[in-house]
Specification:
Blueprint (H helix, E strand, L loop, with lengths): L9 H8 L13 E2 L21 E3 L2 H9 L5 E3 L3 H8 L10 E4 L9 E2 L2 H11 L4 E4 L2 H5 L1 H9 L3 E3 L15 H10 L3 E4 L4 H8 L3 E4 L5 E2 L4 H10 L10 H11 L8 H8 L12 H8 L1
Helix pairs in contact: 1-3, 3-12, 8-10
Length: 285
């Protein structure tokens, strides 16, 4: 099982959905997409063994993978969409905006003007703002304190895990609780968090200094702005945004528990938490 299959507690969420022990998920026999991207769903720093199954979130991603010669692909939907199927909303009171500044990762750090971004957020957001930083930026006192001094509530959903260490099965649960408490979700780059927020009922926004990664290909960012223009701006139309989030996260392509177990190579469930697979899928849609 590739260690990235555990990122953000993805394998734990899917094991729970399949009626298995989510404290110790079985091995997924293949590579599970762990974040939204404009490529074939796999991270650039993770070499893929040819012929190994790729478990992708959406049909759009599968078609891009096929264009790159990767044929052993399965559309299974995103772990986020499965979590929402298991955790129906209670229609809580929503207020303000949760803002996700574009972040780096362990192999590439983000470069940009946080003070300029803070000014743009202040000029745009009508209500209170929660800024959610990636763990690297959150741990960096100078970056975190800039947002704190601006009067924003600053949080971090946690560490995604890595190399089978420091796994966090509740990462997505915390993110879902935060998103459902906010009316808007925003970022300076279109990313997984924006799609997650839209699927969880937030109005989206993508605006501000886009910043950049070290050694980044600028054509990728330009392509995102061009192909997903309907999600960009301080107040996009929520209708097209919801349709895009459903498609990109595969919320319309969720598999019944028995089928998901089959494609992952997982054993049958001992005690399925949902007696009616069809009812669960209907709730997810």
């Amino acid at each position: 099982m590739h260690h990235a299959n555990h990122y953000y507690g993805h394998s734990h969420v899917l094991a729970r959905y399949c009626g298995l022990d989510d404290r110790d998920p079985p091995r997924i026999h293949g590579y599970l997409q762990h974040g939204w991207n404009v490529g074939d769903g796999m991270a650039a720093d993770h070499p893929v063994v040819p012929g190994t199954p790729l478990f992708l979130w959406s049909e759009r991603t599968r078609r891009r993978a096929w264009s790159r010669g990767r044929r052993e692909t399965y559309v299974v939907g995103s772990p986020w969409a499965y979590l929402l199927a298991m955790e129906p909303a209670a229609d809580p009171a929503r207020t303000g905006t949760i803002w996700y500044p574009f972040h780096g990762w362990e192999g590439q750090h983000v470069q940009g003007d946080h003070d300029r971004l803070i000014a743009e957020i202040r000029d745009t957001e009508p209500g209170p703002v929660t800024v959610c930083l990636y763990w690297q930026e959150f741990r960096s006192a100078p970056v975190r304190r800039r947002y704190e001094r601006a009067g924003f509530r600053v949080i971090c959903h946690g560490y995604r895990g890595g190399r089978w260490q420091d796994l966090d099965p509740l990462f997505l649960h915390r993110q879902l609780a935060e998103l459902r408490g906010h009316a808007r979700v925003a970022s300076n780059r279109l990313c997984s968090a924006v799609f997650y927020g839209v699927l969880a009922g937030c109005a989206p926004a993508v605006y501000g200094d886009p910043m950049h990664l070290e050694r980044e290909d600028p054509a990728v960012a330009a392509r995102i702005r061009r192909h997903w223009a309907a999600l960009h701006g301080p107040d996009p139309d929520p209708g097209p945004a919801a349709a895009l989030a459903t498609a990109e996260l595969g919320a319309d392509r969720l598999l019944p528990p028995a089928e998901l177990r089959r494609v992952f190579g997982w054993p049958d469930a001992f005690q399925p938490p949902y007696a009616d697979d069809d009812a669960l899928l209907a709730a997810a849609r």
